[in-house]
Design brief:
InterPro entries: DUF1684. It comes from Haloarcula mannanilytica. It holds the Pfam family DUF1684. This is DUF1684 domain-containing protein. The strands form 3 sheets. This protein has a 4-stranded antiparallel sheet with strand order 4-3-2-7, with no helix packed on it. The chain starts with a helix and ends with a strand. The chain has one domain. The chain has 1 helix and 8 strands. The longest helix is centred in the first third of the chain and has 21 residues. By secondary structure, the protein is mostly beta strands. The mean pLDDT is 94.
Length: 182
């Protein structure tokens, strides 16, 4: 998919600035209230179009139930609704896409770990959410933009419980895109 790199990077930077404002000011921010005055924005890798890839979708008509472990040692049940196949760093890779059973939306939840996890990025992994504009079918393509990978709220406060990426979503490469830790 051809995109205007400069326009895409400008939109990405504006989305990041908007998120920083939310984290600094909103009452639902995961940043504890007593730390918000010192909050000067999240850390991000520079926008990199290399980490914006097209993935081929395999839809699971009868999704398998999967219990994902959480940051507070519980489990939460998700449905493995699709598998995404894509090329990154010269190899074909796959990620599982999930949806909670009660979720009627088309949103796909894609938690990931990679070689940056625990070093340059949050040790509990990062998330991506994909918002297809229609129901997906086998063979459809969807854009995976790792520049949008973000740390879950539990990275900022222990009051949140966050699903951890299952081993099926551990990438054996460094994805230097999206949110990072200092």
């Amino acid at each position: 998919m051809d995109i205007d790199s400069e326009e895409w990077a400008a939109r990405l930077r504006e989305n990041r600035a908007e998120k920083d404002r939310f984290f600094a000011e909103h009452r639902q921010s995961p940043i504890p209230p007593d730390e918000r005055d010192d909050f000067d924005g999240l850390s991000y890798f520079d926008p990199d179009p290399k980490y914006r890839v097209e993935a081929t979708v395999t839809v699971h008509d009868t999704p398998e139930s999967v219990d994902l472990e959480t940051s507070d040692d519980r489990t939460v049940r998700y449905l493995h609704v699709a598998t995404l196949s894509f090329d990154l760093d010269g190899e074909t890779r796959t990620l599982h896409a999930f949806r909670q059973a009660a979720d009627e939306s088309r949103t796909l939840f894609v938690p990931i770990r990679d070689k940056t996890t625990g070093q340059q990025t949050y040790d509990g992994g990062r998330y991506m959410e994909l918002e297809p504009d229609r129901d997906l079918s086998d063979g459809d393509e969807i854009t995976l933009d790792f520049n949008l990978a973000y740390s879950p709220f539990c990275a900022y406060s222990d009051t949140f419980s966050c699903p951890l990426p299952p081993e099926s979503n551990w990438l054996d490469t460094a994805v230097t895109a999206g949110e990072r830790i200092d």
